[in-house]
C-alpha cells in the first residue's frame, strides 16, 4: 500500500511541473501586466516595482527562482495586495471554500446516490425516467443559472432563505451548497445508476435472492458496495472540481472564498496569485484522485489483499 | 411421496424480437429423497424452468404464463412474493453453475453463509457463525474457523463451489436444486463435488433436482432423468431406462453424441517432425512477490517441456485449468514471450525470431480459440473474417477472394448464403465453424486448437469434432489439440501428452495411455472421468452398447 501511494506521489511531480510551466508561460503571454494601468505611472516607479518583484530579470531566471520558491512551499508575494503573500491569501480563503465544497459534496452524494439507486431498481419505468431526466437537467443547467433561480424562488418569492453572505445569517449556507452541488448530484446519480444496474445483474445478486433475503438487504448489503465503486472513483476529481469551480457560486452569493480571489487575480494579472492558486488546485486534484483510488482499493477486498501483500 | 409436483409450467420471454417459449408446458415431480436429473442442451429451458419455480428469472422479459408447482401442497407460482421468499434458501436451496461469480466478492464467506440462518431461523450472529463453521467442515473445507473470515477470491473454484453447497444446505432445505454445479470445474474437482452432493443427499435424505448437459455425470448420480429439448420434456424415466432403452430420437442422438472410444481410423503419418520443442519454459512475473522480493522465482507456467509433433499427427494435450496447456500453445506460436528453450518449426527456431521473419511463418501456423463468442470480431462479417488472412498473406487477389471464401465456407459446412452475416447471427457451433475456417484459410501446416469444443453442446461438439477430423485428413494438417476433456481427446488424438503444473508428466499413444497410464497424475485424471458405465449399481448396461 505504502509503495502504491509513494509511486503515485512521484508520478504527480512531472504533472505539477507541466502545470507550473504552462501556467507560467501562459500568463506572461497575456497582454498587459500587473502594473499597467489607465493612469500613466512614472517610468521610474514601474522600474522600481518591477525590480522589487524581480520582473526585470530574464524570464528563465524568473521561472527558476519561482521554482526555487515553490520547492520551499513559498508562493511569493501578491502583486495586487501589497504586503500580503499568496500563501496568506490562500490560507484566508481556503477554509470558506472548503466548507462550501464539503456541504455541496454532501448534497451531491445524498441526492445523487439515492436518485441513482432508485432509478436502477426499476430500469426503464417512470421510476427510472423521472430522476434520470431531472439529472440530465441538472447536468445541463449551469450554476450561474441555477443560483439566481434558487435565489428568486427561495430568497425573494418565498422569503425562506437568505440570498447572500457566509456564516452571517441562519441558513445562508443552504442555497450556495445546493447551487454548487446540483450538477455533481446529477452526475453521481447517473454514475450510481450505471453501477447499480451492472451489479444487480451479477450472479451473486441472484444468489442473495435465492437465499431468500429481503430485497432491502439484497440492495443495501449485497449490491450497494459494488455499485458505488464508480461513484467513489469520481469523488476525488469531483471534490477538487468543487473547490476550484466554486468561484461562480462565490460571486453570486458574495462569499469571500478562494474562488473569487482566483478570478480577480486573472483579471488583475496578479502573476504570483494566478500561479499560486493554479499550483495549489493542481496539487489538490492530484491528492484527491489519489485518495479516491485508495478508497476504491479499500472497498474491494481482492485489491486490498493484493496491495497489502506487496507492502 | 411427492415433495414437488410441477404441472404444465410455461415460461415465455417477451422480447422485441418476439416471444420465446423458453419453457413450453412441462410437468415433472420429485419425491422425498430422490435425485431427479434434468438434462438438455443449452437453451432447452432446463435452468429457466427451475429458476421460475423460485421466481428467480428476470421479469420482464420473462413471464410465467401458466402452470402450478405444488411444494408440499402449496403452489409456489401463485404464492405471495414474501411467502415465497421465506421458502427460498430455507426449504429450497439452490447451487448455481459458476462458483467464481455466484459469491459476493465484497463480503466474507462467513457473512454470506450465515444469512439464511439470520433471516429464516432467527439465530443470532454467534450461533449462526458456529453453525457455519460446522457446515464448512461438513463440505470439506479445512480449517473452517479461519477460513470463514476469508473472502471468496481467496478460494479456488472447487472450494467456492463447496462454499456454495454449504450455503444452500445450511438452513437444511428439503429440496436442493443444482444448476450445472460442476460444469465450470476441472474433471478431478468435478468428481469430488459430485460425491459431496451425493453424500450430503444420502445423509440428510433430501430431494435433489440436478440440472446438467452432461449425460455421463447424470448417469452416475440420478434416480430419474427428464430429457428436455426446446422447452419441452421429451422423455422421462428411471435412469437405467433412459440410458439403455431410450424412447425418443432426441435422447438417442444425445447418447450417440457422447465421444466414446478412440479415433475411428488411425491415419498413417510419416515419421517427419514438423514441430520440436526443446526444454521450452515460459515464466510469468510473479507480482505478488512485491518490490523487495522481486528476485523470487517467477511463476513457471510452462516448465522445461520437450516434445515432438510429426507431420499429419493430432497430438492431444490434456491437463486441468492452470496446468499451463494454453500457455504452451501460445508459447509455440510466440503469442507470449518465451523465457528459455526453443520451438523448432520445420527446422526454424521461432524463439527470438524478428517480426519480419515471423510474419510469413504465421501463415503456416494458426490457432483456434475456445470461445467462439469472444474470439470473432463482432463488427466483421463472415466474408471480412475469412478474406482478411487471405488478402493479408497475399493468397488471394480482390478478384479471386470471393470465390476462395465461398470454397472455405463449403469446407467448414457453412451455408454460402450466410457470407454477409455477422457473428451474432450464428449459433455457437456455426461460429466455431467460422473460426475454424479462418484458421485454415491460409492453408497452414500446424493448427493449435485450444479447447475448441469446450463451449459447445454435446451434439454440436460431435459435429465439430467430425469436421476437424475431416479437415485434418483433407488438408493434411498437423494439430495440437488442447482440452481438459479426456473423452474428447481420446476420440480425436493419435497421441496424448499430459500436463500437470507446467510440466509434461506423460506422453503416450492414445490407447496406450488409456489402457495403462504410466504416471500417478494420469491415473488420477482418468479415474475422475464420469463414464456412463462406472456405476454398476445404477447402470447395468454393458459399456459396449453405447458405441
Give the secondary structure arrangement, pairings included.
The complex is a heterodimer of chains A (311) and B (547).
Chain A: H1 2-29, H2 43-52, H3 59-71, H4 86-121, H5 126-140, H6 143-157, H7 174-200, H8 203-210, H9 215-227, H10 229-244, H11 247-252, H12 258-268, H13 271-299, H14 301-309
Chain B: E1 2-15, E2 18-31, E3 35-39, H1 46-53, E4 62-71, E5 74-75, H2 81-87, E6 92-95, H3 109-121, H4 125-138, H5 144-147, H6 157-169, E7 175-179, H7 187-204, E8 207-212, H8 215-219, E9 224-229, E10 232-238, H9 239-244, H10 249-257, E11 273-284, E12 299-310, E13 314-318, H11 325-332, E14 340-345, E15 348-349, H12 355-362, E16 365-368, H13 382-392, H14 401-412, H15 428-440, E17 446-450, H16 458-475, E18 478-483, H17 486-492, E19 495-500, E20 503-509, H18 510-515, H19 520-528
Helix pairs in contact in B: 3-4, 3-6, 4-6, 6-7, 7-19, 10-16, 13-14, 14-15, 15-16
Describe this structure in words.
The complex is a heterodimer of chains A (311) and B (547). Chain A is an all-alpha fold and 311 residues long. Chain A has 14 helices and no strands. Chain A has a single domain, classed as MetI-like fold (Orthogonal Bundle), CATH 1.10.3720.10. Helices cover 76% and strands 0% of the residues of chain A. In chain A, helix 10 runs antiparallel to helix 13 (271-299) and helix 12 (258-268) packs antiparallel against helix 13 (271-299). Chain A is flat, with a radius of gyration of 24 Å. Chain B is of the alpha/beta class. Chain B has two domains: 2-105 and 174-257, P-loop containing nucleotide triphosphate hydrolases (Rossmann fold); 274-531, Rossmann fold. The model of chain B is unreliable at 288-296 and 534-547 (pLDDT under 50). Classes of the chains: A mainly alpha (311), B alpha/beta (547). Chains A and B meet through helix 8, helix 9 and helix 14 of A and helix 2, helix 3 and helix 6 of B.
